Amino acid sequence: MKNKSGFTILELIVVAAFASLALILFFLQKANVDAMNRDKDRKTAINAMYYALEEGFFAQNGYYPETISEKNLTVIDPQLFTDPSGIVLGEPGCSYFYSAANCEDGECKEYTLRATLEKEDDFIKRNRVTNTGS
User: Cα–Cα distance between 88 and 98 in angstroms, integer?
Assistant: First the structure.
């Protein structure tokens, strides 16, 4: 009787199934890590806008703007106004939102910055000081 070396079909199926399972788990975990990194980028951008509004714009002007962009928040990297999907703040579908409140003649007393996150609840920053006026 000849002694054949090699793998049986059953062994090959088991190895293929194991490899498939490992690949599925790898790609699921990679998708989670990528989403968490995008969320981190969104939080970084919102924090940068927040500190630019508070420490820069408000400290200099005594009020908050009705809208924000790279034109009135010049101290931060203009790329931060573009979300990880490539959509600029203020455009439909952007995951960043700026909402000014209590405005008169373009000068606002309050605002809310928000980022829609994939793996967590929305990340929200509000104005530090409520400017009540004179």
Answer: 12
CA 70 to chain centre: 18
On whether residue 98 sits in a domain, the answer given is yes
pTM for the model stands at 0.79
Within 1-134, strands assigned E span 64-65, 96-104, 107-115, 123-126
Which two tokens mark 73? Answer: 């928040």
Domain presence at residue 131: no
Rg of the chain over Cα atoms, rounded to whole angstroms, equals: 25
Per-residue pLDDT tens listing for the chain (134 residues): 566 777 888 988 999 999 999 999 988 889 899 999 999 999 999 999 999 999 999 999 999 999 999 999 999 999 999 999 999 999 999 999 999 999 999 899 999 999 999 999 999 999 986 654 44
Q: Judge whether 97 and 113 are in contact, CB under 8 Å.
A: yes
Q: Measured between alpha carbons, how far is 20 from 96 in angstroms, rounded to an integer?
A: 38
- Residue 56 structural domain: 9-126
| Residue 132 belongs to a domain | no
**Residue 1 maps to a domain:** no
| DSSP summary character for residue 89 | T
